[in-house]
Specification:
The N and C termini lie far apart (49 Å). Strands 4, 5, 6, 7, 8 and 10 form a 6-stranded mixed sheet that branches. A 4-stranded antiparallel sheet has the order 2-1-3-9. Helix 6 packs across helix 10, helix 7 runs parallel beside helix 9 and helix 8 crosses helix 10. With 277 residues, it is of the alpha+beta class.
């Protein structure tokens, strides 16, 4: 089946689909939003500042309405789609994204058996039930459910089990990987954590400039995001003044340019490592 036929097949089963371009990045659903030119925020709680009449981005654009699927003005999105994704939460599902053999073995030992779908690097485990979506709950493990999308890779094998408390619990305790990416409070070596900020405005201005640099990038997005993270950490990362809210602003700007949450986390950790944090 082509991408549109696959999407219509999913919609008929109550699974809201959307097309993905290369790099597993969603299309905007009108010409003004192509490649998120309007500034919409994929994978966030709201579609962003776009003024279009319907949600334009990522999970928020997924639908089971076949008329909408056929009529969305996605400038050739179905023709050019590299893959079809779906909104698990909209289908009443939670996807445990397991990226390698080690975490698959951990899941077999720890979690109830359920339907499994092979991916390019590991497996998706599908459970009946909806919860918050969280990346990096363990190294190599993401949870995709409400307000997230997952690539459609087929129906998989096995009976689908109810969402267990063990999976819900993963979202409540930050793993070392999540703490490393979300709480950049470790001082740079040699600075002893001395605060360099005269006022909170100094830090806010720095974050605003960093967001603007990412937003205005027209090419080499990966490199721009990494270098911007590096600059922010080198200037503001040595005193513990950066908060989760600051990091979230940077990640949101990067995701609006098509970066995945995982790429953001990797770039952040790589920047911290390069600076010896």
């Amino acid at each position: 089946m082509n991408a549109l036929d696959t999407a219509l097949h999913l919609a008929a089963k109550g699974i809201p689909p959307l097309p993905l371009r290369a790099g597993k990045v969603p299309f905007g659903n009108c010409r003004a939003c192509t490649r998120n030119a309007c500034g919409g925020r994929p994978n966030m709680k709201t579609p962003g500042p776009c003024t279009c009449p319907r949600p334009c981005h990522a999970w928020a654009a997924a639908t089971t309405d076949p008329t909408v699927l056929r009529s969305w003005e996605w400038a050739g999105a179905w023709r050019d789609a590299a893959a079809v994704a779906y909104h698990p939460g909209g289908a009443g599902l939670t996807v445990l994204d397991l990226d390698n053999a080690e975490v698959i073995a951990w899941a077999h030992e720890t979690l109830p058996a359920t339907r499994r779908v092979r991916t390019t690097r590991g497996e998706h485990w599908l459970y009946l039930g909806v919860m918050q979506s969280v990346n990096a709950v363990r190294p190599g493990v993401d949870i995709k459910s409400a307000m997230a999308y997952a690539r459609w890779l087929g129906t998989g094998a096995g009976a689908m089990a109810a969402l267990p408390d063990a999976v819900r619990a993963l979202a409540k305790e930050p793993s070392p990987a999540r703490r490393a990416s979300q709480t950049p409070s470790v001082p740079l070596r040699g600075r002893e954590g001395a605060c360099q900020h005269r006022t909170p405005t100094y830090l806010d201005r720095g974050i605003t400039m960093a967001v603007q640099r990412i937003t205005e990038a027209r090419s080499a997005i990966h490199t721009t995001v990494y270098r911007t993270f590096l600059a922010v950490l080198s200037t503001h990362g040595g005193c513990g003044c950066l908060t989760d809210a600051h990091v979230a602003r940077l990640f949101a700007a990067a995701q609006a340019k098509g970066e995945s949450a995982r790429h953001c986390t990797d770039a952040w950790i790589n920047a911290r490592t390069a600076l010896g944090m």
